[in-house]
Design brief:
This protein is 39% helix and 11% strand. It is an alpha/beta fold. Strands 1, 2, 3, 8 and 9 form a five-stranded parallel sheet that branches. A five-stranded mixed sheet has the order 4-5-7-6-10, with helices on both faces. Helix 2 runs parallel beside helix 4, helix 5 packs across helix 6 and helix 9 packs antiparallel against helix 10. The relative contact order is 0.17. The chain has a domain of 227 residues: TIM Barrel (Alpha-Beta Barrel), CATH 3.20.20.370. The N and C termini lie far apart (43 Å). The longest helix is centred in the first third of the chain and has 19 residues.
Length: 328
């Protein structure tokens, strides 16, 4: 690695087909339809070709299903970090009490550790859900970091788009009211920080565009590409320039649907850019990563967190109060 490069992290939320259907309120999710046998080999081949090790946030229920065992074992076998993405993938995890949160995190830990031999040290809440209760449980269970915050003003707009054609009841919508976060999340820090008064658990936010706080993870860039590839790449290039200007070491986010297209017949048309062919999507993801290659050295989130922790006596880690946490 060149000494000129900045440490950055790359992660993938391994949300399965059933979890998208569940969140969207569509029927059939209870049978746990899966596309992991298709998308995981595709992602692993893509990463291996670029010599990238990243973090996969795995859902405990998927780790518990025999049909997914080969796929998830292959992730660990390729040297990637396995993070905890809860057991049931309920984006309303922030509404749960301590007992239920503990059960969600512990059950996922057990399934992941049993299958892969890795006990997770990092957590990301489904749908970026987090609460003081969740953070306290993670701290008590010895987690190194949380990566659930999504510092953007665009959460309500993303939520509106996601549920535009759903059949959710008013009760369901209320339950999902903080999916992707509130607009107030746009004021949260972009740089890693400690949750004060919660034992100092380290937070690694999902990076959004500095100053504007617009989402920049790959699903959004792919959506922009449906209007113009040049626009999408210019948007991401601007975000990376602003990260350099403001001293933000990016933590970038992938999803399985960034590698699946209309030719894979998985449905889920409500998700951005699902009408694009998979080859076109993967080509754009590759181009986006190439834009970073000269300045950034991508590592799993665990390594990113460890690197941040070494600099605790510097101003790079911001102490941040928990008083504005949801779900207290």
């Amino acid at each position: 690695m060149s000494s000129q490069k900045t440490i950055a992290s790359l992660s993938l939320d391994l949300d399965n087909r059933w979890s998208y259907l569940k969140t969207h309120g569509d029927p059939g999710w209870q049978s746990l339809p899966s596309y992991l046998d298709v998308t995981v080999p595709r992602v692993l081949e893509f990463l291996a070709a670029r010599d990238l090790r990243i973090t996969f946030f795995v859902v405990g229920r998927d780790a518990a299903e025999k049909k997914n065992h080969a796929s998830i074992k292959a992730i660990a076998g390729a040297g990637h970090e396995i993070g905890n993405h809860s057991f049931s993938h309920d984006p309303w995890l922030n509404l749960y009490d301590q007992e239920k949160v503990e059960a969600e995190i512990a059950a996922a830990e057990e399934q992941i550790a049993s299958l892969t031999g890795q006990r997770p040290v990092g957590f990301r809440g489904p749908g970026y859900s987090f609460s003081e209760t969740t953070l306290r449980v993670l701290e008590r269970r010895g987690y190194l970091y949380d990566a659930s915050t999504f510092p953007t003003f665009f959460g309500p707009l993303a939520r509106f788009y996601y549920f535009l054609n759903s059949n959710l009841t008013r009760k369901d919508l209320k339950q999902r009211r903080l999916l992707f976060g509130s607009a107030a999340n746009g004021f949260r820090p972009l740089k890693p920080y400690r949750w004060t008064n919660i034992g100092g658990l380290l937070e690694i936010p999902v990076t959004t565009m500095p100053l504007f706080r617009a989402p920049i993870h790959f699903s959004y860039v792919l959506y922009l590409s449906t209007f113009s590839v040049h626009l999408a790449l210019a948007y991401f290039r601007t975000a990376m320039a602003l990260c350099r200007m403001t001293g933000v070491s990016p933590s970038l986010l992938l999803h399985p649907l960034d590698f699946l297209g209309e030719d894979d017949n998985v449905g889920l048309e409500f998700f951005p850019a699902m009408r694009l062919p998979s080859a076109r999507k993967m080509d754009l993801v590759s181009k986006v990563l190439e834009l970073c290659s000269a300045q950034l050295h991508f590592v799993p989130l665990k390594e990113h967190a460890q690197n941040v922790a070494k600099g605790l006596q510097t101003a790079e880690v911001t102490l941040y109060s928990h008083r504005t946490l949801p779900g207290k």
